[in-house]
Amino acid sequence: MNVPSYFNDNKVTTANQTINEPIDQRLLREALFSPSIWMVATLFLFASYRYSQAMDVFEVVIYIFTVITMLSISFYWRAFRYALIAIGVISLFALWQYQNNLDLAQSNFWLKYLFASQSAVMWMSALLVFSTIGYLTHTLSTNKFIGALSSKLAWIGVVMGFAGLLVRWHESYLIDPQIGHIPISNLYEVFILFCLITTLIYLQVERRLQNYKLGFFALLIVSLAVAFLLWYAFERNAHHIQPLVPALNSYWMKIHVPANFIGYGAFALAAMTSIAWLIVNHFQQKEKPSFWLQRMPTTVVIDEVTYRAISLGFIAFTIATILGALWAAEAWGGYWSWDPKETWALIVWLNYAAWLHLRISKGWRGTLMAWWAIIGLFVTLFAFLGVNMFLSGLHSYGEL
User: Fold this and answer.
1) What total of structural domains would you count in the chain?
2) Is the pLDDT assigned to residue 18 strictly greater than 60?
């Protein structure tokens, strides 16, 4: 399929200009000789040396795959590289401050106010909300400084969130080595993951477009997730670390859940860019100068962002569904049981498969596809939350 020139690998177009990017070979050469890439590699090597004895063979394979993936992204995305360094340094500093004593979270200044898992998540929440407000201000004023500041707040929020998850992982082992587990096992933890992945996917879009014009729409859905996260933490005390449900005590969880939430994050971003498309298209049809037309990318650019987001989400969700089937075969003796969660996962998959089929083979675009992407998010939301709230089945351990 021919990709429009504004999204070619070596060229990015904003609404007002075309920017030539460095070719991949030069980026790779710069990265290889960059101190920052070696700092990332050193942090991964240290983690391997420090924690490899606690891993089984499956976890070692997952860790190696994760390292290769993270380093590959770091070669071509400088900001991501710096974020990895910050996450690693903050996490190791927090672990050092604990000194194997969880009670220090209440008395140690650095832990209590900054780097204990709950403190870090609260910082993440505040930073992402402030970033959303900043992007809205940028949209209203077109002030580039505010746009750049909002982007940096989003990056710092991502750093604090991922550091918080890594520290929470360590805290679970400090409570009791028998209940220690990766923090992606309950609704509170996966909502943090959703916020972080969705923000990261948007930041890559921002990097490709070289502007901040879609920031408010992308971060708005993240702020809504943050609002739910805060309610869930304080109203239900969901932030307390709980023993792992036996059904989730598997290495499959470590790869199935992240893949799932890459899909969810991408689908959420596609829905929000579709809302932006509908707004821009509405004013474009009036054929008059408009506030939104001056401050937003063209419908062609937004449509391509939506298409790419759904493509990424579909690939990730397909992988997650396959991994889930393999996990089910190991846990319950069958790849597929038509459990409500599995059934709705299939509905989500078919929904986006049909969207992509009509987009690629029939060339469908426009209002129908935008509304379809928006409705698709509600279908996905029901598969994620609604099934756990209103239906029962083998996945009932994920209740709200």
Assistant:
1) 2
2) no
